[in-house]
Amino acid sequence: MIRAVPNVAAMASYALADLGDTSAVSLAQNESAHPPSPAARAAGARAIETAALYPDPDWRDLRRAIAAVHPVAADDILCGAGSMELIGALIRAFAGPGDTVLGSQYGYLFVATAAEQAGAAYVTAPEPELRVCVDGLLSRVDATTRLVFLCNPGNPTGTRIANAEIVQLRDALPKDVLLVVDQAYGEFDEQDHAPIFALVGRGDTIVTRTFSKAYALAGLRVGWGAFPPAIGAEVRKLLNPNNISGASQAMATAAMADQTHMARIVGETAALRDTTAERLRAAGYDLPVSHANFLLIRFADAATAARADAALRAAGLILRGMGGYGLTDALRATIGPPEAMDRMCATLEGLPR
Ligand SMILES: Cc1ncc(COP(=O)(O)O)c(C=O)c1O
Counting beta carbons within 10 angstroms of the beta carbon of residue 190, is it exposed (0 to 12), middle (13 to 18) or buried (19 or more)? Predict the structure, then answer.
């Protein structure tokens, strides 16, 4: 019998969204409802002409474009095939059997999968009222803790904590524990993020971001992170060489340079998110205030959520069940086109609560 190594044989695959019927509108993966920047699309068309060549393995133009916008040195940036690749490589580089990766109760579930891939344990701290609790995280740190993951704003809650609280968490964590601040939805959070990027200079903190949400480039698989040089050098060994295609790099570079487009589609998404949330609250639904491109809708119980899911699917809308997070009474809805949001609200308004 040919066997995988024990931790791989024992683990389950990462649970992807059930997208069902392809004619339905997917509100299940927090993708952008808007097209990417026209400049990005033009850059992609040009880059296709050089598809016979391997891409820049050092992502030089892309790193320069990111550093022109964010308070991060281009040399401290690593780029991944989605921020997922960076999260996985970080965990494999710094945690293994006997080590623990600490996350928050409703933290991004891929972190649990990546910890299992590395043979490390994944533990979580409770999130009272669907909000990350810094004291709770600190109380779960022990001698085995290697990395702490904090997603702000959170997925699937959409809630956020003040960046000042993250700075306090970093100050209170042991210096040999890495803190990873996952800002996949950071562009939707109007807080000043300079204090979070400044933590990278301490040598023990990483900030990750993605082009998949605010930049509307999920299909290109581009993420980036600000890494202290010594940490980045280790992570880099685990990234596949030439990990991001030339077209993806060219499009992400142009998208980063077009902050006007990004800010416009983030603003429109946030406005539609807030009016949709208000409409659902007026209909009697419970939703935490979201600082991301999705809403978490709470139902009376798991059976009510399942009935709502079925009704929404019948109406051609696919939301994401939250059972994996222990939130069986909830569905998560990406902010999609206005017509889909209207259809979602109308369907939910017609159901018994
Ligand atoms: C919190 C969070 N982090 C990271 C990611 C990974 O995004 P990507 O690999 O597309 O950059 C996601 C994707 O949904 C996410 O929700």
Answer: exposed
